[in-house]
Amino acid sequence: MISHSYLSELFSLDGRVAVVTGGSSGIGRAIAGALAQAGASVVVVARREPELTATVEELTAGGCRAAWVSADLSSRDGVRAAAEQAADAFGEPDILVNSAGINLRPPMGELGEEVWDATMALNLEAPYLLGQRFGPGMAERGFGRIIHVTSQQAHRAFVQSGAYGVSKGALESLARSQAEAWSPHGVTCNTLVPGFVMTPLNVRLSSDPEKVAALAARTMVGRNGLPEDFAGAAVFLAGRASSYVTGQAIFVDGGFSVH
Ligand SMILES: NC(=O)c1ccc[n+]([C@@H]2O[C@H](COP(=O)([O-])OP(=O)(O)OC[C@H]3O[C@@H](n4cnc5c(N)ncnc54)[C@H](OP(=O)(O)O)[C@@H]3O)[C@@H](O)[C@H]2O)c1
Fold first, then answer.
1. Which pLDDT tens digit goes with each residue over 95-112?
2. How far is 247 from 94, CA to CA, in rounded Å?
3. Which of 40, 94, 96, 164 could covalently link to 13 via disulfide, CB atoms 3.0 to 4.6 Å apart?
């Protein structure tokens, strides 16, 4: 016997509003789809309109409620404008997912200020600013979920992590500070930690079959990640079921990090 009301109490996102940055591609797109199918009204935020409209069309064709905002989150003004537009779509969000990210990999000795600044702006400052914009409101309303997408490079050097690893390590620290501030008011803040996932972000690595096989062999499951691997963990972290899980880094990596 399946108790649908029990499952719904734990996992339903009915009536919730979610904002997903980077929701038009890869991991963010899979998370946006998962939250929408679990009942949330979802706003996806990224730059390219064709990808945004395709994502929203797919979701609405499946009976979900979705909207998009085209914005460049690499500037503070861009983030602020995006936040207001995102809140205009369905109201103030209950769930914020920060998945937009870039991974530029010059060797450490050649890592210049431009790459450093661009990486920190999108991977770290945008999640910080969005948290400042939406976190206090969530706390006031007594419910909120902030989910950042970090990386194994928050925990170890990997293929010239450089600025990228630093941004992701700091993002995990940000999640802990946000958790400390807002968990007493019903707002949990956690990170999802991918291993190697086949998405446009790492096309250089994922188009090399030998590297792909070598990385798969480093997992315990025996394959590299797929965006849809994040669906269950995202729905869990976004819903009532995870109300006592906060400040955590949850590895969705097929065992990569413990092998
Ligand atoms: N794939 C992996 O193996 C892996 C591993 C560890 C961590 N991650 C993390 O997972 C997250 C998602 O990565 P992914 O692999 O799904 O990458 P992806 O498929 O390349 O998606 C990146 C998303 O971010 C958006 N984005 C990029 N720059 C932006 C900007 N300036 N302003 C607004 N949006 C921007 C992109 O849309 P537009 O280009 O249209 O703006 C796209 O929607 C990232 O934070 C990444 O660091 C990925």
1. 999 999 999 999 999 999
2. 17
3. 40
